[in-house]
């Protein structure tokens, strides 16, 4: 196949990364998204954590932790290879502390065993490559360690704490940066306001039924890469690809940003293990927070029918009130914004269940169906990793 036409559906981090990875190889692509610009959906509306595997302590065989570690260690180098210099230091949060909650699904000893598994996995990877591996522009030196309770959660909340080298990157700054790189790349043609209704095989390629700014149209393409988030399984089905036996679930969780007069006392915190929350102070003085029992407002085997924006401020108020009781430093914080984001993952029971499939992300990545590619991103962390893998596989087929 000489110079095939390539269409990527979905301009979140996964679709944008694949477009950049293909461009690096000299291939042009069309990048479609229903929003007016790239990276305005789930890739933006999250805490930006680049997972080293700690939150997946309930993945018994360690496969998810390994995938997350590999994704995290390749994240920075891949973005740099496509985009040039990246200001990681400007976007990076401080290191996360993992606070063991009183009713955690796992004991601190069980968590320590899981974290030891990550250390061993890191050692194997570095031995395999024969060098230290970089994580967002810097090498990992100690990965994790037990830490004294320094009253992270208030005077009456004495818990065991693990300090880690895991960080987040500010998704607002990162998304803006990557969207600009997409606009500047001559091999990438971005079209916003485009919804793909269905697809069908036509000859050796595909015909997409689209709505562009409300008007119906059709688009032909030799290769199609489905990187949509909540719509991926539905679009796959229109070309005859049946969903996997394990059903997926759809959740809505809010990115809540606040400002606090006690910002200097804030620490990056993840509460484990179960349906708890995160706190991430950003360098511009804003603080991301989530409290799962309040900020996760939708759980179903079907995609949500609306964006849930109407209840966003109420969710933020209730989440802030609940988490302030555990983390008094947030008391009196001012709500700046509250944006709903969709989470898609395999599993039908929620994260409060120890055997929930949501505690795993080991069946993710690209899959090929004779010219149609469906990419299950899994987590923000693994998007560049799977983008590089997808682009390499497509290139090998073209050649």
Description:
- This protein has 399 residues and is α+β, with helices and mostly antiparallel strands.
- It folds into 2 domains: 6-42 and 176-244 and 365-398, 3-Layer(bba) Sandwich (FAD/NAD(P)-binding domain); 54-169 and 247-359, D-Amino Acid Oxidase, subunit A, domain 2 (D-Amino Acid Oxidase, Chain A, domain 2, 2-Layer Sandwich).
- It has helices at residues 13-24, 63-83, 88-91, 108-129, 171-184, 232-238, 292-295, 312-326, 383-398; strands at 6-9, 29-32, 97-100, 134-135, 138-139, 144-147, 161-164, 188-191, 194-202, 205-212, 215-221, 223-226, 248-259, 269-272, 277-281, 286-291, 296-300, 334-346, 365-369, 372-376.
- The strands form 4 sheets. Strands 3, 6, 7, 13, 14, 15, 16, 17 and 18 form a 9-stranded mixed beta sheet that branches. Strands 8-2-1-12-20-19 form a 6-stranded mixed beta sheet, sandwiched between helices.
- The longest helix is centred in the first third of the chain and has 22 residues, at 108-129.
- The model has no long low-confidence stretch (mean pLDDT 93).
